[in-house]
Specification:
This protein has 4 helices and 7 strands. Strands 3-2-4-5-1-6-7 form a 7-stranded mixed β-sheet, covered by helices on one side. The protein has helices at residues 3-20, 34-41, 55-64, 97-108; strands at residues 23-27, 47-51, 69-70, 85-89, 115-120, 135-139, 144-149. Strand 2 (47-51), helix 3 (55-64) and strand 3 (69-70) form a beta-alpha-beta unit. The chain has one domain: 3-Layer(aba) Sandwich (Rossmann fold). By secondary structure, it is of the alpha/beta class.
Length: 157
């Protein structure tokens, strides 16, 4: 299958999920396009926030989206108060325990309208966080699939 078509399909699937859900978990192995597809898909948000425990990731992210705000910690997203905001937490599987606790607290105590998209290698890495998910999406080499979706009414999104 043509690589451009594969990415277009992944973008379309992810876009429809983001529109209808507030907390999305995205899994997939290395080189399945999780981060790049996410960045292309969220470009229409007024405020785009990004955190990764891997500092090299931020350079790649900024080369794709120079307008995205890179956060130094997970909890610093709380200070951003905009209706049209999405917060991408990348490389969760590489996070240390302190970052994982921060992510857990942010998800547990989420009170803003900010959408949160958590990128992981495998859902097993986040089994204790699954209760907070509105949607689970898995990227494979040539496709993406929605594993779980708790549909939200449009006025609640």
């Amino acid at each position: 299958m043509d690589e451009a078509l594969v990415y277009a399909v992944k973008e379309e699937i992810l876009s429809s999920i983001i529109k209808k859900h507030n907390i999305i978990f995205l899994s997939g192995w290395s080189k399945t396009g999780k981060t790049i597809t996410t960045l292309k898909t969220i470009a229409y948000f007024e405020v785009r926030l990004y955190f990764s425990p891997i500092k090299q990731s931020t350079k790649i992210v900024l080369s794709i989206d120079p307008e995205i705000q890179i956060l130094g910690s997970v909890s610093s997203y709380i200070s951003v108060n905009s209706e049209d905001t999405i917060f991408v937490i990348d490389d969760y599987s590489s996070s240390d325990n302190n970052i994982k606790l921060e992510v857990h607290d942010v998800l547990k105590n989420k009170k803003t309208n900010t959408k949160i998209l958590l990128i992981v290698r495998a859902f097993l890495d986040i089994k204790d966080l699954l209760i907070y998910a509105d949607a689970l999406v898995r990227f494979k080499k040539n496709t993406a699939e929605v594993i779980y979706s708790r549909f939200q009414e449009a006025e609640n999104v």
